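Hello again, I could really use a second opinion on something today. For a while now I've been wondering how a particular protein folds. Please have a think about how the structure follows from the sequence. Here's the protein in full, and shout if anything looks odd to you:

***
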Amino acid sequence: MMRFQFELVPVDEVEPWGENRNLHWFGLTEGWYCLDVGGVDLLRYSEQTTARRSPTDGRTVPPWAEYYVVRLWEDMLQALPYILEPVPNDLVDFVTAGWSIDFDDIDDAELLDNTQIDAAIDAYSDRSVDTGYLRFGPELQWWRTLEPVDTVNVDWRFNVDPDGDVAFTAPLSGRASVSTDKFVSAITDFDYRLLEAMQVRVDTIAATDVLSGFDLDIPGLIREQAERRTWLSQAMAHQVNTDWDAVRAGASFLTRHSR
């Protein structure tokens, strides 16, 4: 089971950007969102955090991450071609593990050709979705395996707020898996619901003066809405061909020098 949940801020409550009170497609996706994967709500705040963040006017808002919903959509589509490329079994541990390297301990001669090192780093980072724009949000590491069944997996790791103001209901770290078919269905469903909600928003803005007091390019907004409807199909059509032999060589080097 996997689902991207979201709710947009009412259009007349969207906060403009900057001194010019500018609004654009990205900014109009202001709202709340959560990712439910394997029965775990990864972006749901704890009751204590939700209570601190509740509006003072008594309104009830979702207990989810509060940001621009399109940010998660964009990050998932960027990573999607890499997530859908299966990772060889012998490289799963590397692709799912973070590491740090002390380059001071490495002979300069070993670094003359960084192609394999770059390939290994890319194999890790291309499958990573970082929510660092949220306070203490998790890093999500995605990868696909074909054995014993065709599965998309995700690891998550939260940073802990030392002040205790921000906390999520999910465990600080963990792993969940869904079938690749369900993963693709969840992405497709998220794309459809977000673009449909934004179509309503764009149509409303174009037909009324609901945002007449803001700096807003309505023809540009309409063009961007149409263009963003193509992003999912482009991501699905993008074929990734990782040089796994180069990744193995780079991974071996990085593992030897990690700490």
